[in-house]
UniProtKB/TrEMBL annotation:
The keyword Hydrolase applies. Its cofactor is Mg(2+). Keywords: Hydrolase. It comes from Serinibacter arcticus. PANTHER family: GDP-MANNOSE MANNOSYL HYDROLASE, MUTT_NUDIX FAMILY PROTEIN. The keyword Hydrolase applies. InterPro entries: Nudix_hydrolase (IPR020476), NUDIX_hydrolase-like_dom_sf (IPR015797), NUDIX_hydrolase_CS (IPR020084), NUDIX_hydrolase_dom (IPR000086). Residues 4-134 form the Nudix hydrolase domain. Coiled coil: none annotated. This is Radical SAM domain protein.
Length: 136
């Protein structure tokens, strides 16, 4: 989705397990996509007329087969980044990456805050997760 200023609008969902680890998605290794072969927070672009919350629910189900009621998602932040406007949600969800029905990307895995701090993520997700973990 784009606004009247043609700014791309997307969402991302920080899926956090009860033990504090966060689910990341390894993007496809295709040179035509942004951040190929890079770990990122799951998410995607909004469709025309779609709310950020509806987009978050749709992306989790479409890309990973995760059905999460909108009431479980909590807003973390909404801000303009270098690539467009991003709305970030979080949900606590115990999920086994081996059981995820991945339809986009190469893999998913759970990572600790320490592991993530040593990674180079796509879409400014390093900063998003550093702030998320700092909030506790």
């Amino acid at each position: 989705m784009t606004s009247s200023s043609s700014t791309p609008a997307g969402v991302q969902v920080i899926v956090q397990a009860a033990d504090g680890r966060v689910l990341l998605q390894l993007r496809d290794d295709k040179p035509e996509i942004p951040y190929p072969n890079t770990w990122c927070i799951p998410g995607g672009m909004r469709e025309d007329g779609e709310s950020p919350l509806d987009c978050a629910v749709r992306e989790l189900e479409e890309e990973m087969g995760l059905r999460v009621p909108p009431s479980r998602l909590r807003l973390v932040e909404a801000r303009t980044r270098s690539y467009g406007h991003e709305t970030t949600y979080a949900v606590e969800l115990d999920v086994d990456p081996a059981t995820i029905d991945l339809t986009e990307g190469q893999a998913v895995a759970l990572f600790t805050a320490v592991e993530i701090a040593g990674m180079s993520l796509g879409y400014e997700d390093d900063d998003v997760l550093a702030a998320f973990f700092a909030r506790g």
